[in-house]
Amino acid sequence: MSVDRPEREREHRLVVAAQAGDADAFAELVRMHQRRAYAVARSIVLTHEDAEDAVQEGFLHAFRALDRFLPDQAFAAWLHRIVANAALDITRRKKVRDADTLAETIASPFRDPAESDELRRRLSGALETLGERQRAVIVLHDVEGFKHSEIGKILGIPEGTARSDLHHARARLRLVLSSLRSQL
Asked: First-to-last CA distance in the chain?
């Protein structure tokens, strides 16, 4: 994701101001990056609620670690890595707890209207057959448009591993969804 120069300079000024204690500057950084942070988290976790939790945890951790961030680095990459780690932590905690999932009938003001669509349900089911990392790689690349190198930085894996995971994830989805194609 290429960021134009004025936007990068604005982000740099906001980071420096936030590091100096300007809460409004950090709030602006949150506004600038919340949609992409959600996309990163949602590519790793299976539910909207977990993605929101991961984003919130990620921004909180970023705020607490802001003094350690070097302003000349790419803030978005640093933040997305933190959010990805928060999402992975949530996934690990859920596996350990093996908690029962809440009923889908609970209302959520942010629920995607397309979630009730049959195709979306089947695609979600197919994505669940993938491992965490493969699911993250395919959503980050094919849905969100991140480059392999950016995905590598976000997930803390080599670029080649991101490419390989994407290839294997697509092959798995083709296999799982092949029956769907014949039904359409």
From this structure: 34
Please state, as a whole number, how many other Cβ atoms lie within 10 Å of the Cβ of residue 162: 25
Residue 76 corresponds to which tokens in the numbers above? 């978005």
Task: Give pLDDT tens digits for 94-152.
Answer: 765 544 444 444 444 454 454 456 777 777 788 888 888 998 898 888 877 888 998 98
Query: Which structural domains are found in the chain, ordered by start?
Result: 1-107 (1.10.1740.10), 112-184 (1.10.10.10)
Tokens at 86, concatenated: 């928060």
- Dump pLDDT digits (tens) for 48-76: 999 999 999 999 999 999 999 998 888 98
Judge whether 19 and 63 are in contact, CB under 8 Å: no
Query: What's the confidence (pLDDT) of residue 98?
Result: 47
Write the burial class of residue 43 (CB in 10 Å: 0-12 exposed, 13-18 middle, 19+ buried): buried
**pLDDT value, residue 175:** 86
Which spans in the chain are helix H? 5-19, 23-44, 48-65, 75-97, 118-128, 132-138, 148-155, 159-183
Integer Cα distance of 179 and 183 in angstroms: 7
CA dihedral 109, 113, 118, 122 (to 10 degrees): -60
